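User: My instructor asked us to take a sequence, write out its structure as tokens, and then describe one feature of it. I'm not sure where to start. Here is the sequence I was given:
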Amino acid sequence: MLLILFFLIIIIAIFTIKIRINFKDIQVSNINENREKTPIKHHYYIEFEIFILKIIKIAKIKFNNQKMNKAINKMKYKIEDFGVEREIRKEIKNRKQLLKAFKHLNLKLEKLNFKLAIGTDGIVSTIGIFTVISTIIPILIRNNADKVQYEIEPIYNTGNVINFWANGISEVYLVHIIYALYTIKK
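Assistant: Let's start with the prediction itself. The structure tokens for your sequence are:
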């Protein structure tokens, strides 16, 4: 009887575990404040909060680009030694399965703010890219238009440059992650 109760509690916990992803201050840029071209720089800060029964926080995991670079440098040799990199590449080649799994993930967007400044060598190509992006983004966010704030800005006569900044919150349930992984392996 106690064993059945234990498994019932575990099953309820799995179905009610919610993972909230807070991504703060994600930046990718190759221009400085004076709009001069520089090498590409990136910065990010991501928090994963894990809730049980949708409201009780049980863990909080923080990542930033410095922590991730340290972890990747420590693991680099271990991954290459076991041939895992080749296996990962084989898995990535089957992109249709990844897209199918992503659809089953049911990632819920709670809030998204982003700014994009983009430019190319030519004024005409900058206008073309700006127009395409300005048209595609509203189509992509049409279901979450009230939760998304964005700003797109063209940069003229500076070369091929990009400046991207984003903040946001999204949620996913553990049961959806398990199902998405199942569809990949199937």
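For the description part of your assignment, you could build on this observation: The helical segments are 2-16, 65-82, 84-93, 95-104, 123-140, 174-185. Try explaining in your own words what that tells you about the chain.
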